[in-house]
């Protein structure tokens, strides 16, 4: 059997971070006619590099197979849109971007973010690999090219005179199988005095909050600040600032510039976060290799709750059809015997079925029709938003269940008060 290799250094990987068994691609939703056909399952085994402490998966499918036609549309989350607008306002105020500057976003999705820069009269360009999503952005009047990003795409844009004063990449770095090509492309397209920002889930939160369901095949890598600083430095990019964000269960927003410039200066938050990560043990291999036991305990608790609820004759449905939910359900072996159906506000997912478990996806109105006892919130990072929208389940005594970081049952309509802790 071939030995997995680190996607940054190329060195062999021997240490396990967590092994979640066999699982289908998390965004490979099924049409009705596909239900009786064989599905592809792949090992969902995350390794940790002893050399640079980069957590990563082996690559089984190419990015083209995974992302060319994608089901995730950023604009269907109101909280994410608020986050995008707040970022736009902050960056314009802080760095004075205007109609003379160029903003470029990698993996720009449906234009959820660039629309706010465009409203301010700032030239934008989106680079989006999924053709179906890029077309949505284009139809909305947001300049978008349908390409995967790397050195080749960067060189093409530079030849066309497209260089970035602000280069953005939100929740894309984890999706990149060739980190060196991707970051070298960012280096090439960034103007000499340009600024680069990226957001990605913070592995410190993944470990401390037991967010194992954020591990799936579309996410090739998982980063600490200590590790990403080394990777960027290898490409002559300097991280000069960082923010800890609540999005996606806890993310980092890093700020980078060319390392041969002195402005902006390095902020105190860089030193603070590095010290915080060291205090949490993220500089030691032992912190990573013990994570698997915590994951097993969560699986047992969730299955115990579901078994007890079904034994009492309770009905359970899901809310959301996120990729993380498919990791959770497949790892725990939760199918239609436990979950009657799930709902999602994204019309592109309605009428489809979850990969592996074949749980059907309906419009959220389905919950009012069937009045379930429990609603299992699969996109737990949006639980406050969902509980507010679905507070009406309290009318028939319905309750919410959130599985991560541990199984909790919430009453209605007060989302921040825990009724039961298992």
TrEMBL record:
<dbReference type="Pfam" id="PF08421">
    <property type="entry name" value="Methyltransf_13"/>
</dbReference>
<dbReference type="InterPro" id="IPR013691">
    <property type="entry name" value="MeTrfase_14"/>
</dbReference>
<protein>
    <submittedName>
        <fullName>Class I SAM-dependent methyltransferase</fullName>
    </submittedName>
</protein>
<keyword id="KW-0489">Methyltransferase</keyword>
<dbReference type="Pfam" id="PF08484">
    <property type="entry name" value="Methyltransf_14"/>
</dbReference>
<dbReference type="GO" id="GO:0032259">
    <property type="term" value="P:methylation"/>
</dbReference>
<keyword id="KW-0808">Transferase</keyword>
<feature type="domain" description="Methyltransferase putative zinc binding">
    <location>
        <begin position="6"/>
        <end position="67"/>
    </location>
</feature>
<dbReference type="InterPro" id="IPR038576">
    <property type="entry name" value="Methyltransf_Zn-bd_dom_put_sf"/>
</dbReference>
<dbReference type="GO" id="GO:0008168">
    <property type="term" value="F:methyltransferase activity"/>
</dbReference>
<dbReference type="InterPro" id="IPR013630">
    <property type="entry name" value="Methyltransf_Zn-bd_dom_put"/>
</dbReference>
<dbReference type="InterPro" id="IPR029063">
    <property type="entry name" value="SAM-dependent_MTases_sf"/>
</dbReference>
<dbReference type="Pfam" id="PF13489">
    <property type="entry name" value="Methyltransf_23"/>
</dbReference>
<feature type="domain" description="C-methyltransferase">
    <location>
        <begin position="246"/>
        <end position="405"/>
    </location>
</feature>
């Amino acid at each position: 059997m071939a030995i997995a290799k680190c996607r940054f250094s190329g060195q062999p990987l021997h240490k396990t971070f967590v092994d979640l068994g066999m699982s289908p691609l998390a965004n490979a939703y099924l049409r009705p006619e596909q239900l009786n056909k064989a599905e592809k399952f792949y090992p969902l085994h995350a390794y940790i590099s002893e050399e640079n402490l980069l957590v990563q998966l082996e690559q089984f499918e190419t990015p083209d197979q995974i992302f060319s036609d994608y089901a995730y549309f950023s604009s269907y989350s109101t909280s994410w849109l608020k986050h995008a607008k707040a970022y736009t306002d902050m960056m314009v105020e802080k760095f004075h971007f205007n109609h003379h500057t160029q903003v470029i976003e990698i993996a720009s999705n449906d234009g959820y973010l660039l629309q706010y820069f465009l409203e301010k009269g700032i030239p934008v360009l989106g680079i989006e690999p999924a053709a179906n999503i890029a077309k949505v952005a284009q139809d909305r009047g947001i300049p978008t090219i349908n390409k995967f990003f790397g050195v080749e795409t960067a060189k093409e844009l530079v030849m066309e005179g497209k260089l970035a004063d602000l280069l953005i990449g939100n929740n894309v770095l984890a999706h990149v199988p060739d980190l060196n090509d991707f970051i070298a492309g960012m280096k090439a397209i960034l103007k000499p005095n340009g600024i680069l920002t990226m957001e990605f889930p913070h592995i410190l939160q993944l470990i401390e909050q037991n967010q194992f369901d954020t591990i799936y095949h579309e996410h090739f890598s998982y980063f600490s600040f200590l590790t990403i600083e080394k990777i960027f430095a290898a490409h002559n990019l300097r991280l000069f600032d960082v923010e800890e964000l609540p999005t996606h269960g806890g993310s980092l927003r890093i700020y980078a510039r060319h390392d041969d410039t002195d402005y902006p200066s390095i902020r105190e938050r860089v030193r603070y976060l590095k010290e915080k990560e060291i205090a949490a043990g993220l500089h030691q291999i032992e912190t990573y290799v013990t994570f698997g036991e915590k994951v097993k305990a969560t699986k047992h608790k969730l299955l115990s709750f579901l078994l007890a609820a079904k034994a009492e004759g309770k009905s359970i449905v899901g809310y959301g059809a996120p990729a993380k939910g498919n990791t959770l359900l497949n790892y725990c072996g939760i199918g239609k015997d436990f979950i009657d159906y799930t709902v999602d506000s994204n019309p592109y997912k309605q009428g489809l079925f979850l990969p592996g478990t074949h749980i059907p996806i309906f419009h959220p109105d389905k919950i009012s029709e069937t009045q379930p006892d429990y609603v299992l919130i699969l996109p737990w990072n949006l639980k406050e938003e969902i509980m507010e929208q679905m507070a009406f389940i309290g009318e028939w005594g319905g309750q919410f269940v959130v599985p991560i970081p541990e199984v909790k049952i919430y009453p209605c309509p007060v989302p921040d008060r825990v009724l039961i802790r298992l």
